Structures are given as C-alpha cells and as structure tokens.
Amino acid sequence: MKFILSVGIALFLLLPQRAQAQNEPKVDSLLQLISETKSDTLRARYYLELSDLTMYNDQNKTFLFLQKADSLYRKTTDNKGI
To answer: Are 46 and 78 in contact (CB under 8 A)?
Structure first.
C-alpha cells in the first residue's frame, strides 16, 4: 500500500513538469511566428495562445503575453479579441 501511495505522489509531482516540457516547443514556435508576422491581429492571437500555454507554469509570462495581446488588439479595428 505504501508503494502505491509513493508512486501516486511521485506521478502527481512529476506530471506538471512533463506538461511544461511538452509546451516548450510550442512556445518557441509561437514566439518565432510573432517575430515573423506583420499582422497585429495575428500577433495578438499568437500572444493569446502563448498565454494559454504558460498559464499553469509561469503566471508572470502569462500576464505579459495578455498585456501584449491587449495592446495589439487595441491598435487594430478587430474588437473580437478585446
């Protein structure tokens, strides 16, 4: 019984790290797309996707990405993102 409990606790503690590692290539790809994209609307959407990916791992980055998306959406006439 102790073994099962130990394995359960280990999995519970290690799964968030694995999820973060899986998101890292997506984050890198989106950052590259942002640097290559000229459309403010698309860049804002990419920042929103980044905020979703970093929400549980790095709240400071999430807040920064949301601020950037908000700023870009306010510059455009696309009010759907606001």
So the answer is: no
Q: Is residue 20 part of a domain?
A: no
Encoding tokens for residue 34? Answer: 């942002």
In a domain, residue 15? The reply is no
**pTM confidence score:** 0.70
Count of the separate structural domains present in the chain: 1
C-alpha 44: how far from chain center: 13
Output the six-digit token pair for 40. Answer: 């403010």
Write out pLDDT tens, residues 52-68: 998 888 899 999 999 99
Q: Are 19 and 56 in contact (CB under 8 A)?
A: yes
